[in-house]
Amino acid sequence: MEKIPYPCVILCGGKSSRMGQDKSLLEVNGKNLTLYQYEKFSQIFNQVFISSKDNKFHQKLPLILDENNSFYSPLLALNSIFKYFQNTYIFIISVDSPNINKKSIYTLFHRLNSQNILLASTKNYKHYLCGFYHSKNYEKSLQFLKENNHKLSVFCSTMKAEFIEFENEDEFINLNYFDDYQKWQRSLKDF
User: Fold this and answer.
1) Where do the MobA-like NTP transferase domain residues begin and end (predicted)?
2) Is the pLDDT higher at 119 or at 190?
């Protein structure tokens, strides 16, 4: 299958307060979760980057560092990513969403049609950190940050995000707690 020509950015800058440790450094098959995700997404994207507050990784990975280290916010990470890229879509995924499969990513990719934002959703949730954002959203993200408005749901609504609904809730799980991580480890399957 042909690789997707847009960059993919894995968000690794969260607090991980519910997990009790940094999710991006959790061990998976002898490597950290970030490297696991990086290798997985490198199979379908020409370029894969890591978004983080700092360089906490032992591997040499292409990083996009947050411009501001004083607070945690996915919108801050998105703003740094939009600033980094010029006039392109970027596939955004959080490091703690390890079950997303190729078919779903390609479904999103093939449905891109000049939207500002195109995201995955399931019956129960909108997945704001799984989908394509266009870098033209930079100015609006900057405005939101200046107004101290960090709600991704409000940002996506303002930018008229579109959603594609997927059936399988399990594909879009987040590893929020250590129990989630252990359960996922036991059910680990190939990408």
Assistant:
1) 8-147
2) 119
